[in-house]
Amino acid sequence: SAVISQKPSRDICQRGTSLTIQCQVDSQVTMMFWYRQQPGQSLTLIATANQGSEATYESGFVIDKFPISRPNLTFSTLTVSNMSPEDSSIYLCSAIRDRHTEAFFGQGTRLTVV
Amino acid sequence: DAKTTQPNSMESNEEEPVHLPCNHSTISGTDYIHWYRQLPSQGPEYVIHGLTSNVNNRMASLAIAEDRKSSTLILHRATLRDAAVYYCIRPNRDDKIIFGKGTRLHILP
User: Which residues does chain A have within 8 Å of residue B43's beta carbon, measured at their own beta carbons?
Assistant: First the structure.
């Protein structure tokens, strides 16, 4: 199994500002993903974080709003830019070590935008 | 598109077995079936996954129909700690885990 650490675990931010969330995996992984989970809802995939190249975004999510970095095989960041109250949500990082194996999830970052 | 169908909710009594169904009628021959669960206020956790054969681990068993169009997650002896949302997922060819609404499992003491 792999252990995923996310920082911060929660934050309260002013609208118009940006927050960068960090995701650290305790071992090298093939793939890393970012999700959003709004209150009472299921998880929605934001993007796949690709090492050494631009992230691959799902429909409805764009790089300008959610820039993602993945500088190596164990670390990724998601930035929520120019925040509004609608961005209040839990953001989760996930990783897969190898193809066709299980995914691991961080505990999430609870973001409140005021 | 989650590509699986699950009941919205189920109830079970504590210390009894629980069978959580999942339909995936459009599954291809190389699609794995994954199950995850999300306990309250936590990130999802892996439960079990399989391709064709039934699978067992310390948490649960996965029974896969012979035609692979459905599967059942079996919790052999439910406890209150098993109350969670259970997700049946077919990762796509890019290994993306796309979540549907899942089944909310209530355990009655």
Answer: 92, 105-108
Count other Cβ atoms within 10 Å, centred on residue A40.
5
- Comparing CB atoms, the residue among A1, A30, A48 nearest residue B96 is A48
Distances (CA, A) of B60 to A94, B18, B39, B46, B102: 22, 10, 16, 11, 17
How many residues can be counted in chain A? 114
Q: Which two tokens stand for residue B84?
A: 């969670």
Instruction: Give per-10-residue mean pLDDT for chain A (114 aa).
Output: 92 98 96 95 96 92 97 97 97 92 95 98
Tens of pLDDT, residues B58-77: 999 999 999 999 999 999 99
Rounded distance between C-alpha atoms, residue A49 and residue A29, angstroms: 11
Beta bridge partners of A74: none
Would you call B99 and A42 a contact, using CB atoms and an 8 Å cutoff?
yes
Q: Please give, one letter per residue, the 3-state secondary structure of B20-65.
A: EEEECCCCCCCCCEEEEEECCCCCCEEEEEECCCCEECCCCEEEEC
| The residue type at A8 | P
Q: Would you call B45 an interface residue with chain A, using a CB distance cutoff of 8 Å?
A: yes
* Spatial separation of the C-alpha atoms in residues A77 and A88, rounded to whole Å: 18
* Chain A contact for B76 (CB, 8 A cutoff): no
What SS3 state is found at A39?
Answer: coil
